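FIELD: query
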Amino acid sequence: MLNIFIPIFALMNPETVAMQSFIQTLLNSSIRFKMIKVEGGVFEMGGKSSLPVHKVQLRDFWIGELPVTQELWEAVMGKGKNESNFKGKRRPVENVSWVKISEEFLPALNRFTESMRPVGTIYSLPTEAQWEYAARGGKLSKGFEYAGSYKLDDVGLYDKNSHMETKPVGLKLPNELVLYDMSGNVWEWCCDWYDSYYYEFCKVRGIALDPSGPKDGKDRILRGGSWANYAQYCQLPHRNFDLPASCNDYFGFRLVLVPKPAHESPVCFQ
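FIELD: result
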């Protein structure tokens, strides 16, 4: 008989109880992954490479402790569906497009976790604001240049220490929220469309509340830098973008868990 453990908080609405970090299990699988609680707040988003700096206010959310691994990808998508160039179950999945993540992986993951995650929530890609806030350490931020340090070698994998390949996740030190690999290893897809003027738009608004990016566009946002990049591309404010159907061996992603919207988009749940 299949023994399914459903945490008590899975029966609770996240807006009425105190959030806590938790271990997510999958139906009919031994694979588990940790989701870290992020207490919302106000922060200054952007930097020298991404102007103008502007204030953003975010509500609470959960974010993955680690980038999505090849092990988790195969548990959700099935054996033989891993097209990563650098194989290894604890390496980050890569060579995945925004489209495939949003239209295939996320719907499947949400089906497999439906009875095993907090009621009223759904897995999604992070918004760009959620990603940067978490990478900076949220309310625990110490103002580091990279995710957890002023020294990239301590916390990230980039062109000078990666041996020009991905590495298993979690080898470097975490940031203030105990999130790993947010600087380097693989670029991480975000939910938002890219618009070079969007930060200007947010600046004019004063404090942007839970911004989710432009309504449309050509490219989707990527953040964090990768094993193939110079150090400056791994700095926290740095932005990258590419076509949603693009995939290569330095594009991966990380999960967030957020309140389920009233009207779900077919590709992104925020």
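FIELD: remark
The two ends are 37 Å apart (CA to CA).
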